[in-house]
Specification:
The protein contains 17 helices and 2 strands. By secondary structure, it is mainly alpha-helical. The protein has a single domain, classed as Up-down Bundle (Growth Hormone, Chain: A), CATH 1.20.1250. The chain has a two-stranded antiparallel ribbon. α2 runs antiparallel to α15. The longest helix has about 35 residues. It is found in: Cell membrane.
């Protein structure tokens, strides 16, 4: 296995023109704009599409998502290993962004197509298409993360690249959150079956164009030194990377909290609050308002360590959930709580992406092994495990509460929906914060980066 060590200096960013720097930032950022057009459709609407449009039971959907995500998680780790072994004229990560985009779009459309099949046929079709889009999404999204250390070795520029990426990702997510239900109504002309597949087709077309632009404009500029390291040695080196382990476990609960909330949002406002229109507004808030938190991060990063910014954002999100819990069905207070939650989420998600590259450098400093692809793949694995478990538990809780689509829900079903949307996410945020308190790489990272640069300078 070829492991590669960056040999660019922190000063390289200063040698580039203003236009070149921003061309790379925007081109890198639109990759996640594209991914979020597809990803947010999956997290916000796919479970609802399966249960209320395709007519599959909630527990079956939850189990299906869990099984396919777990299978796909192992595929992600394989993708990471392949990236680390890739040496093409386009670089290590860029080829997958280009060649994975079309299969991703095709499976995206197929996921929101409802064929006229038997009950068992619908379940088999859902398994096949959801597994397909999960694997293709990892094939595109993992390289977007693994490419970051190859774009620059400057820690501050990594934060800037991450900030632009998150801003554009939130814009993509906001478009899906706000525009999807109106698009379904407009394009479907009264048919959600037709409306969802046409809306998804439009998003996938835009995504393919954006991913091509990323491939064309983003260059892997950090030069590398190749050395042979076995896969076993890579995993052994990873096991000694304590900062990454703490980061990984903490973000497992971070993503779990978000997936519970996003997956149950349309249920909560349709059945608990009694207005599907409010669901679109809240979805828009949770997708757009995080921009405020994201933009705040570069401002306060000069004064606070990354870990502390993550903890602050988590605390703000937790307080937002408390406000929504107190609000009950008061729409004004619910919107206020959603805004507070979203600001905090923007801060902690920015830190999630910014912090990913630092344990890679720590591992290289400690062991000589640079496993950016493997670490990115396992981080993706963790996110998909969080999504799998949250979907399975959400579906099980809905079934246990005797949820019935398109009907007045009993008190137990309403409690389960509320637990999925507010109570469980709040608990998971607290757990994530407690774990992140043990992360201390920020204190030593500047010296580690300095030593790495001196080794290869």
């Amino acid at each position: 296995m070829n492991i590669e060590t960056p040999i660019s200096s922190n000063a390289n960013i200063e040698k580039e023109s203003f236009l070149d720097v921003w061309k790379q930032r925007i081109s890198y950022g639109i990759s996640d704009f594209a991914c979020n057009l597809i990803w947010n459709m999956l997290t916000l609407y796919l479970m609802y599409f399966y249960t209320d449009v395709a007519g599959i039971t909630a527990v079956t959907v939850g189990t299906m998502i869990m099984v396919t995500r777990l299978i796909d998680s192992f595929a992600d780790m394989f993708t990471g290993v392949i990236i680390d072994k890739t040496h093409s004229r386009w670089g290590k990560s860029r080829p997958y962004i280009l060649f994975g985009s079309l299969p991703l779009a095709v499976f995206g459309v197929l996921c929101f197509y409802a064929p006229d099949l038997s009950a068992d046929g619908k379940v088999i079709y859902a398994y096949a298409t959801y597994l397909g889009i999960s694997i293709c999404y990892g094939l595109v999204n993992i390289p977007i993360s693994s490419i970051l250390p190859s774009l620059t070795s400057n820690a501050r520029e990594r934060t800037n690249l991450t900030t632009v990426r998150i801003v554009l990702a939130f814009i993509g997510a906001t478009i899906v959150s706000v525009a999807t239900l109106p698009l379904v109504h407009l394009l479907g002309r009264g048919s959600e079956v037709r409306g969802f597949v046409l809306a998804m087709s439009l998003y996938c077309l835009i995504a393919v164009i954006c991913l091509y632009l990323t491939f064309r404009n983003v260059k892997e500029k950090v030069k590398v030194v190749k050395q042979k390291v076995s896969i076993k040695e890579s995993f052994v080196a990873l096991k000694g990377n304590k900062p990454w382990m703490i980061f990984a476990v903490s973000t497992l609960f971070m993503w779990g909290s978000n997936f519970f909330l996003q997956g149950s949002l349309i249920y909560y406002f349709t059945y608990n609050v009694g207005s599907k229109d409010i669901a679109a507004i809240i979805a828009g808030i949770t997708s757009s308002i995080p921009l405020i938190g994201t933009i705040l991060v570069p401002v306060i990063s000069h004064r606070m360590m990354k870990r502390n910014i993550f903890l602050l954002g988590s605390l703000i999100s937790f307080l937002g959930l408390v406000v929504m819990l107190i609000a009950n069905i008061n729409v004004t207070v619910l919107i206020t709580g959603a805004v507070v939650y979203a600001i905090g989420f923007g801060m902690r998600q920015n830190m999630y992406f910014s912090m990913q590259a630092d344990p890679v450098d720590f591992g290289e400093w400690k062991t000589g092994v640079n496993g950016a692809g493997l670490i990115s793949a396992i981080n993706g694995f963790i996110g998909k495990v969080a999504m799998a478990v949250s979907a399975a538990l959400s579906g099980a809780l809905l079934t246990w509460g005797h949820y019935v689509p398109h009907a007045h829900q009993n008190s137990q079903a309403l409690l389960m929906i509320r637990s999925n949307f507010i109570i469980i996410p709040a608990i998971l945020i607290i757990i994530s914060m407690l774990i992140m308190c043990f992360y201390n790489l920020d204190k030593y990272y500047p010296q580690i980066r300095k030593e790495l640069d001196s080794r290869i300078g």
